[in-house]
Amino acid sequence: MESVLEKVLIVEDEVHARSGLTELIESWGYRAECAADGMEGLEKAVSWAPAIVVTDLKMPRMDGMELLSRIGELPQKMAVVMLTAQGSIESAVDAMRLGAYDYIPKPVDPHRLKTILHNASRQREADAELEAEGRQQRDTGVLGPMVGSSPQMVEIFSMIERIAPSNVSVLVTGESGTGKELVARALHDLSARRLKPFVAVNCAAIPETLIESEIFGHEKGAFTGALERRAGCFELAEEGTLLLDEIGEMPMATQAKLLRVLEDRKLRRLGSKIETPVDVRVVAATNKDPEKAVSNGDLRGDLYYRLNVFNIQMPPLRDHLMDVSAIAEKMIDDMNERHHCTVAGLKDSLMNRLEGYQWPGNVRELRNTIERAVILAGSGMLGIEHLPPHFGEPGFAPPPNRVGGMETILVSQEASFEDGQRRLDESNSVRVEVGTTVDEAERQLILKTLVATHNNKTKAAEILGISSKTLQNKLKEYSNASVTE
């Protein structure tokens, strides 16, 4: 028998069905109340705050679909179960797409209804446990994949928590490498869409000729090379969350089509005459000042205002250096799992060096630095000896130009691959000083390239222009040398 404290509201306009369901549900140990139509049901939902609402679909004054929508706007989360007459199953499925927990056809099968109520009650308990766990993590400076206890990060965590349950668009701004994608993932993970897809697309990494196809999809024959029908990112993220990173790099014509999709919740694939409904939450991100981008003509003003329902401004890492320690410890755990290492933590001397650095590449640069150190150490505690040569010293990060004649050579390597496009990141570089041996320069270049490719040895070998076997031999040689030392 379910807890007598669990409350169920029955909304049904037919008198006998309403009284029968109320008695049946009460017999299973629930506290039950009833309402004669959607309007009365909404009033009782507000005042009584049930855990579960069982509602008919067709009712006077306010039908079940509108009731579902209005309940979704309430601060109290309720599981809505839709009752459907014969021939209304399609409408019930649509209701589930809009957030209903489940549906059951009439005449009601008592066994099935009891099972649905039981499962809904258990789901509610699971959600409460997840929320409690999340609250405990947040008290220790953790929100999903994000870490930080500085005032700036606490404020950002609070905003994410407030807006995540809604479906409103969010614009995330901040310098490159500050963790804008982590914000989007946290918004997704804390929303009702968390079990649905999270799709991220970098607008700057897709050629202008392909971006509409990538985002909206295309039909077979829509253009030369379109050999089959293909779903775009919107359809891939159906019922989930779509991150449009570097939105300011999107062509203006594509921005106009995106605005229409956001307003109409329908899209038309390239080459199609049919509009397809989409249910996707859109989070956009940019490292540009969006207002300047609008004034410069890089971003449509109407699209900016449509996306900027909420704005989350990510601070550069240099403005919250007190979080470096916690972020680095979290990264060590991630790198240990990824690279099968057993690093235990950071020595105080290394921590002081990290906290005294200004991090022009922000969290991304910190991640690259920690990943390099973990790979080099393999186990034990990370120390200053695992940092790049001259890390944190004056002049450590000069611009990627020739400096002082031939005294410094800056060799830039590929930082990451996003959607198959090469992007250059100045923080991924090898600084080779005069007096450095060729073997040491080669070792730094190989290890940095491995960091940039997330330890993808095949891709690293391709970038370096050597065979995979040669790369494996080099890594074995470095490993043996480390053991000897």
Automatic annotation (TrEMBL):
Residues in Sigma-54 factor interaction domain copies: 146-375
SUPFAM superfamilies given in the database record: CheY-like, Homeodomain-like, P-loop containing nucleoside triphosphate hydrolases
Spans through the membrane: none
GO terms, molecular function: ATP binding; sequence-specific DNA binding
Region of interest (Disordered), residue spans: 124-145
InterPro entries from the UniProt entry: AAA+_ATPase, AAA_lid_NorR, CheY-like_superfamily, Homeodomain-like_sf, HTH_Fis, P-loop_NTPase, Sig_transdc_resp-reg_receiver, Sigma_54_int
Pfam families in UniProt: AAA_lid_14, HTH_8, Response_reg, Sigma54_activat
Record's compositionally biased regions (Basic and acidic residues): 124-138
Protein known as: Sigma-54 dependent transcriptional regulator
Stretches assigned to the Response regulatory domain: 7-121
